[in-house]
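Form 7-S
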Amino acid sequence: MTIPPADARPWTALHQLRIGCVQYLNSKPLIHGYEGAMRLAHPRELARELAAGKLDAALVPVFEVLRDPHYTLVDDVAIACDGPVFSVLLAYRGELQDIRSVGLDPASLTSVNLIRVILREFHGLTPEFGPEGEAQVLIGNQAIEFRDREATNSDVKILDLGAEWLRGTGLPFVFAVWALRPGLAHLPEIAAGFRALKTHGLSCREQIIADDDTSTADFRRRYLHEFIRFALGAREKAGLQRFRELLFRNGQIASATPPLVFV
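Output:
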């Protein structure tokens, strides 16, 4: 494939921005081919820096934009799933109903709130949550490595949070979105740049698979083609709204309004 000169690419307008992204395999199709500076950090850190005005745009956990809905969101770009996600899970032993404590991944915002919703709403469970527990929430590459390591361990059970969300709601789950800070100019052009970057990245998935070293090539191919979805369409937005409603009902966010703004 012939790559056009950098100044001909439709996302060059993004080079003027302070952009932050996560370092996980699932984000690589959203930034592949980007030549500008980019802050790579954990989801929680990116959310803090965007809120502090240190970033203009960041791929942030959806919990951040639901908790504080003053950002503009890029339409049709997300890290989502419509069934098993594989890389966001609860690992435990014994029976789910017997779990009394859950250890949370400190890097995550969305997943630690999603597990609270899933256990309360779908299973009637209200365990204690903290740094350590009988069960453990794992996300991203750490979750993938755990599943590879424990694949033959019959004592370990895994609750895939994407699969469990679909079972309980019938909807996709959105984990992360591009959020733009308030007051940022030229929002339509910026959003178009992120969408063009996604389109380019998805067309280069085989190159991403070849260059990455997470698990095996077969897994990376299945992960980026089957498990992770990158669209933010009507069903994904319905799943986002349902998550917002359940967070509010369980007291995890202060309000289920105003409407989210997409550009």
